[in-house]
Amino acid sequence: MEKRNGRFAIIEQLLADGIRYMFGNPGTSEEGFLDALSDYYPEFEYILALQETIAVAAADGYARSTKKPTVVQLHSGVGLGNGIGMLYQAMRGHAPLVVLAGESGIQYDAMDAQMAADLVSMAKPVTKWATRVVHPSSLLRVLRRAIKIAATPPMGPVFVSLPMDVLDAPNEEEVVPTSIPITRVAPEPEAIAKAASMLATASKPLMIVGDGIAYSDAQAELTRVAELTGAQVWGSDSSEPNMSATHPLFGGLLGHMFGEVSSRITSQADVVLICGTYVFPEVFPALSGAFAPNTKIIHIDLNAYEIAKNFPVDLGIVSDPKMTLAKLGAELEKIMTAEQKRLVGQRIAQIAETKKQHMTEQFEADKAVHDIVPLHLSQFAEELARHLPPNAIVFDEAITHSEELCRYIPPTTLGHYFQTRGGSLGVGIPGAIGIKLAHPDKTAIGFSGDGGAMYTIQALWTAAHHNIDAKFVICNNRSYRILKLNILQYWQEQQLPQAEFPASFDLCHPDLRFDELARAMGVQAVRVETPEQIKPAIAQALFHNGPFLIDLVISNEVPGAIG
User: Fold this and answer.
1) For 227-381, where are the E strands, in sequence order?
2) Is the pTM of this model over 0.90?
C-alpha cells in the first residue's frame, strides 16, 4: 500500500510477527486504528471485551498458553487505569503482553484536555517496559522493540502509548519480523560440579521451583534431578505443572499468604535448590528464618534480579533451567556413590509413603461429605474427572477450593493446567476464553470463585459474541472464603478470640444467580445444587456446542471456625 499511514502499518507489523488476535475495548482515540482492522479480517481479529480488565485477562490466558507475544488494546488513561490491576497480574506472572493505548495526539500535549494523562508513568509500575511513540518514522521500530522485550525471558508485559496523530500520519517504515534473541545459556562446568557436590552430600535436600521450569520446558529434567537426589519438590510462584502433581516427590505448593506456612517446610532442609522462581511470593513473607542456619542454597534462574534478592545464596547461576538441570542430572549420575544412592532410595520411599497416606486421608474425608447439601467441590471434581477429555485444559481460579479440584484433576502435563498467579481476582473466566482461542481443538474449562467471577462476569458476553466454546464452573459458596480463612490466622496471631466474620465477607442477600446472569449474556447455563444434578450438568456442558456455565452451589463452611 503506497503511503499507508501508521494505523495500517502497525497491523502489518503484527501480522509479520504471527500475531493474529488483538484483545481490547474500543475508544475514540483509537477509532481510526480500529477502523483499519476490517481490511485484515480474518487474518487479524479483534476480540471485543466489555471492560479493560477482561481484555487484559483474556490476553493473559492466551499468552500463558502460547508463550508468545499477545496484543492488548486499551483506551487512553481511563482504559489503562481500568486494566492496571490485571496488568499487575500479568507482570507477576511474566505474561508477554504488548499493551497498546491510544491517546488524542502529540499536538494536544499543551492543552491538558479531557482524559489527558501521563500514560507511560501510569504503566511503568506494572510493566517490564513502557514508552510513547513521538514520531511517525519510529512507530514500527518502537513496536518491534516492545515485542522483543515482552518475549525475551524473563517475559513480561510492555506498554506503548500511540498518539492519534502519529497513527494518522503517513508511514514509510519497512515491515520486517521482530528479532527475538535466544537466551538459552548454559552454566560453567565448575558451577555444575559445585551444585552437584552440594546435592549429592545432602541428607535433607529440598527443591523449590516455579514457572521458569514451564517456560523452559524443563519438567523432565527437574524430575530427573529430584529422583537422583531424593529431594522433595515444592512450588513457589508456581501456577503450572512444573512437576507432575502425581509424582511421589511432589509436595505441593508453598504458602501463598503467610511466610510461616512455607518456613515450616523450607527450614527443615540442609541443601535447597531453587530453580525458575523467586523466594518467597507470599503476601506476608518471612523476614528471617526461612532456612535453617548453615543451609546451603543454590539458585538457578534466567533472571539475575531474583537470585539472592531476599536471602543470601551459596551458589547463584544465571542460566536456562532446562539446560542447567540436564547437566546437573548428568553430573549427579557420574559422581554419586552407591551409599548415597541407597540413602536416596530410602528417602524417596519414605516421602512416597507419607504422601500416599496423606492422600488416602484426604480421599476418605471427601467420601465422608459426599451427597451432603450444600455440595462440596470434591464430589463435582471427582465426577468431572471421569468425563473430561484427556487433552482438556483447565484454568483454575477456584482459590480456596483449588486443593479439592487438584486431587481429582491433578496438574500433570505442561500446557494443560494453569492456576491463578499475581493476586488479581477475576482471571478464571477470561483466562479460559484466551486459552480456548489458543487451542480451539481442545476442551478448555475455567474454574472461578463467586467473588472472582463477579470481577469479570462481562467476559461471558465476549464468549457468546465470538462463539468461543469455553466451559465455566463458578464455585458459588456465597462468600469471600479466603478472607474468612485469613482473618482466622490474623485472630490467632493477635491472640484475639474468634468472632463473627465481618459482614463484608459474605456474598448473599441477594443471592448471586450465575446461571441467570450467563443466559442474559447469551451463554447457556445450569445451576447445580444437589448430587443428582452433577452428572447431567457435566454432560450438558461438555457436549454443548458453544460456551456453557455451571453455577455450582457449594458449602461455605470454614475449617477451624467455631460455630
Assistant:
1) 232-235, 250-253, 271-275, 296-301, 315-318
2) yes
